[in-house]
Amino acid sequence: MTTPHETSSPHSNDVHVPRPLAVAAAWSWRLLVILAAAALLVTALRTASLIVVPLAVAALFTALLAPAALWLAARTPLSRGLSSLVVLLGAFAVVLALGTAAAAQLASGAGSMRTSAEEGFAKITEWLRTGPLQLSSAQLADYLDKARESLKANSSMLTSGALSVGTSAGHFLAGMLICLIATYFFLAEGERIWAFFVRMLPRPAQTPTHEAFRRGWTSLGHYARTQVVVAGVDAIGIGLGALILGLPFVIPLTLLVFLSSFIPIVGAILSGAVAVLIALLVKGPTVALLMLGVVLLVQQVETHVLQPFLMGRAVALHPLAVIAAVALGSFLLGIVGALFAVPVLAVANSVIRYYFRQEPELEGEPEPDPTEVTVPE
User: Fold this and answer.
1) Residue 234 in contact with residue 256, Cβ under 8 Å?
2) What residues contact residue 347 under an 8 Å CB cut-off, 6+ apart?
3) Distances (CA, A) of 299 to 30, 98, 239, 240, 304
C-alpha cells in the first residue's frame, strides 16, 4: 500500500517545481502552440490569397443578396437556382453601370481637371507666399527641387509598379470570375454545400457546429446589410457636399467613399482626405476647408448615430474591439485584413457565444433543443 510520503517522494518531478511555475509553464506552451497555429494560418491565407479572398468576398455578397434570392424564389415560379442567377446578374448590372458612369466622368473631365489642378497649385503657391507661413520664392523652389529629386530616386519603384499592373489586372479578373461563380453556388446551393462539410465532422459535433455557425451566418448577414446602409449614408453625404461645392468627379468620389466605408474607421478617413485634396487642388484652401467640414460632419453622424444604433445592434461588438480588429487585420494581411477583420470577428463572436450558451436565441426564433436539431439534407 502506498503512503502519502511515497506518492510525493523526492524523486517526483512535481516536488521540485512550484505550483505557480508549473501553471505558468502549462499556459505558456499552450499559448505558443496557438500562436504557431495562427502564424501558419496567416501564412496559408497569404499564399492562397488568389483563392481565399474571392471566396471571402463571395460569402459577403451571399449574405447580402440571400434575402432577395429567397424572396424571389418564394414569390415567383422561378427555381432557387434561377432566382439566384437573376439576383446576381441584377447586382452585377448595377455595379457595372455605376463603374461605367464613373469611368466616363473620369475620361471626360481629365483635361479640365488638369487645368483646374494647375490653377489650384498656383493658388496654393501664392497662398504659401502671402499667407501665414510667408515662404519666400527661394524656399518654395527648394521644396520643389527636393520633391523632384525624391521622384527621381523612386523612379525604379514606380516603373516596377507600372510593370506589375498587367499581372495585377489578370489576378483581379481571375478573382472576380471566381467570386461571381462562388456567389452563385453559395446562393443556389449554400445549404447543401454547408451540410456536406458538417457531415465530415464526428456525429456528436454536427448539431452544435451547425447551430453555432448558423448564428454566425446570421450575424454576417446583419453586418453586410448594415454596412451597406452606413456606407450609403457616407457616400451620399460626401457626394452631395462635393456636388454643392462644385467639385469634379462627383460620381467616382461617391463610389470611392462607398467602397472605402467597408473598412471601418480607416476607410472613411482616407476617402475624406481624397475629397479634401481634390477640393484643395481645384478650388483652393477655402473650399477645401468647407469640404473638410462636410467630411467631419458625415463622420460624426456615422460615429455617433449610425455605428451605435445600427452596427452596434447588428454585430454586438464594442468599438474598441472593432478598432483592435481592424488594426490587427491590416498589420497581418494589409487592406484585405482590414476589410474582413470586423465580419470575421462578428461571426466568431456569435459562434463562441453560442458554444458558451450566452446567446440563447436567433432573432424571431426560439432556442432549439440540441437533441432535436438535425443538419439540413
Assistant:
1) no
2) 213, 216, 217, 219, 220
3) 42, 24, 13, 14, 8
